[in-house]
Specification:
about 300 residues, mainly alpha, Lysozyme, 4 strands, about 5% strand
Length: about 300
């Protein structure tokens, strides 16, 4: 029998990587996201949400139930992602290959079935396809991310060996340090430290001190649930904050150089220029983070329930 759908174990594997936040949040590149990685960039996702009366994803406000999330995932896979795997792979595909490929393109986009790993699969070289998948497609915004590195390796291992060993997307406190540092936890610890929230040692261990630092950070961002769990919404906000600071510094430095040259040419005092640059940087960051600021303000006024 030709395999054409994802198995229950395959959907569970995918969910382990995507998480399942039931309140909309912004991903690291400012895309509204909810549930098991649903965004309105997908036509199938838009159609599934429209059936449920939801036509827009609003961070901190749009909510779905766990049952709705599972139903939407099944509809979206059947409409968009499973057919893409079937079209772009050999007819003798195994269930483990179907499940791994669906997870990969769900994260990368259906166009990934035209990439090198899938070409190797179609050429009858499944081992080479798994090796290529496990060593590529693990960067975002030009940066190699530990979470994506691990996901590609686990997808490759599933594809080649049938091992359904997905890593939980929700990181909770563990009583002992893991055998290997968790890259997502380590990344979060680094950002928390840079933002003034002390998680203790940067060791990739989700310990009690890190949990307390995450709670303090979540309380400073009212659209997050202050539960001390490092899930997709909290990690995305941490990454956005880190990216926003870097961008502001880079743009601020460039503005300072340009303003200095202008001041030299016009004879304006440096103090006034420095003040202007500072105001411009603050205004820029406030504009980029206006969604978070607005949600914080609405929450303070009692206009919005804290997610």
């Amino acid at each position: 029998m030709t395999i054409t759908t994802t198995s229950p174990r395959g959907r569970a594997f995918l969910r382990s990587h995507e998480g399942n936040p039931l309140t909309c949040y912004l991903d690291p590149v400012n895309v509204p996201t909810i549930g098991q990685g649903f965004t309105f960039r997908s036509k199938a996702v838009r159609a599934a949400f429209a059936k449920r009366g939801i036509t827009k994803l609003v961070p901190g406000k749009t909510k779905i139930t766990a049952e709705q999330s599972d139903a939407i995932l099944a509809e979206v896979l059947a409409e968009e992602f499973e057919p893409a795997v079937v079209r772009g792979s050999p007819d003798n595909r195994k269930q483990q290959q179907m499940d791994a490929a669906t997870s990969a393109i769900y994260n990368l986009g259906v166009g990934a079935m035209e990439w090198q790993w899938a070409k190797l699969w179609r050429a009858g070289k499944p081992a080479a396809a798994a090796d290529y998948l496990g060593s590529h497609y693990n960067t975002a915004g030009g940066k190699r991310l530990g979470g994506l590195v691990r996901r590609r390796l686990e997808e490759a291992n599933l594809f080649a060996n049938g091992i359904y060993a997905g890593t939980p997307a929700m990181k909770e406190v563990t009583p002992a340090a893991p055998a290997q540092p968790d890259p997502d936890v380590k990344e979060a610890q680094e950002i928390l430290t840079s933002k003034g929230f002390n998680p203790g040692a940067i060791d990739g261990w989700m310990g009690e001190k890190t949990r307390k630092a995450i709670i303090a950070y979540q309380k400073a961002h009212p659209h997050l649930q202050a539960d001390g769990i490092l899930g997709p919404a909290t990690l995305s906000q941490l990454r956005r904050d880190a990216a926003g600071v870097r961008e502001a510094v880079e743009k601020g430095a460039g503005s300072a150089v340009g303003s200095g040259a202008l001041a030299f040419a016009t004879g304006l005092p440096w103090g006034w220029i420095a003040l202007g640059v500072g105001i411009a940087v603050v205004a820029y960051v406030a504009y980029r983070k206006r969604d978070v600021i607005q949600r914080w303000w609405n929450t303070r006024l009692g206009r919005e329930a804290i997610a």
